[in-house]
Amino acid sequence: MSKKENRFKGYGIATQAIHTGTDYDAETGAVRRPLHMANSYKLPDDLSQVNYSSTDLLMYSRNGNANQHWLEEKIAALHGADDAIVLASGVGALHALFWTLLKSGDRVVYPKVSYMAVYRMFHELFNRKFGVETVMVDMTDLDAVRKAVTPGTRLVHIETPDNPTVGVTDIAAVAEIAHKNGALLSVDNTFASPLNQKPLELGADFVVEALTKFINGHGDAQGGAIISNDLETMDRIRYEAQVNVGAVISPFNAWQIFRGSVTFPLRMRQINASSQQIAEWLEQRENVTFVSYPGLPSNPGHELAKRQMRGGFGGVISFGVATDDKTVERFCAALKVVTFAVSLGHDESLIFPQPSYDERIDLYPEQFRKGFIRFSVGLEEPEDIIADLDQALRAVGL
Ligand SMILES: *Cc1c(COP(=O)(O)O)cnc(C)c1O
């Protein structure tokens, strides 16, 4: 697909979230573009011009659909980028990127703390099935990164802040190490979101966003995006991974995420402010053993986060409580405002314990190995969230 001109380039992110990808419906003049639940589109009369693996022509919805394309214009604009590819899930987007870039014998350096599916892909799938050399490293330790990224490394993948410990990685420094060794850098930006962090401006080659989270923001649609200025590789991803592997987004989900993303900057600003307030409260609450949130001056990543994030530190707080796994579960179940469920970035606050028997627990810093909870701050009144956390802690004797 060729790059679309962004008529709102240079405007603020809230303006772009409202206006990019939007247009009048040509047929009716409606001020909203319609949902096109069509699998196929009318072919041109001259079929000799049609390439069935192409994404240039609207032809079959696996090659691209109209609602997907309109959402791609908006997601690219949110990152100030030339192009975005929207797929069926965040993991679908990560896989499409890795599948296209990597082949047998390539070396990829990936983080010790990352989204579970990234760990699975590099710890047991790409290495065992396809002979990709996968090297796990602590991305918050730049000396370790320098040792792991050897000349000829194909890809360095990072996540910042990371899931689930909310650790911060220096994007510009890792980009420099990667590029010096001929490697590309991809950044999973889901926890930060484009309101708070734009990795392409810090030297990253590719950004991945789980649209499922803050960008859609309503917990009712799954989607993922790859964002980049490397138009040639983006076209390869469309050809190799979208059309010929097939993790395409349904037009309905693209339409729903398009709608959710209109209010994304407004929601994210509130989530940043509420998260800061709640993290500060948690930090002084007795029986809370640690709070990991980059907005706290006590956080080891705070100074770095202030440099590479734009004044907001995101909506996920990880914290610990001085108790066992069973009591942590009882605490989560005792919450009345906060919902006990996986995922993050919804309108409602979500809480999810990370039990001490988790297979990856030893990969996390020491303090995370007991009573560790991941908390995604929602749009409820912050005072109500704080009161709810407090009453549920008290209910289990904490
Ligand atoms: C949720 C998440 C993903 C995956 O997104 P899905 O839509 O669930 O596939 C990837 N990375 C991070 C950091 C996430 O939190």
Low-confidence stretches: none
Radius of gyration: 21 Å
How many strands, what sense, and barrel or not for the largest sheet? 7 strands, mixed
Which outline best applies?
globular
Number of helices: 13
The helix-and-strand class reads alpha/beta
The beta-strand count equals 12
Order of H and E elements:
HHEHEHEHEHEHEEHHHEHEHEEEH
Distance between the termini: 56 Å
Percent helix: 25-40%
Percentage of residues in strands:
5-15%
Put the structure in a nutshell.
The chain is an alpha/beta fold and 398 residues long. It is 36% helix and 15% strand.
Overall description:
The protein has 398 residues and is of the alpha/beta class. The protein is 36% helix and 15% strand. It contains 13 helices and 12 strands. It has a 7-stranded mixed sheet with strand order 1-7-6-5-4-2-3, sandwiched between helices. A 5-stranded mixed sheet has the order 8-9-12-11-10, with helices on one face. Bound molecules: pyridoxal-5'-phosphate. Pyridoxal-5'-phosphate (PLP) binds next to α3.
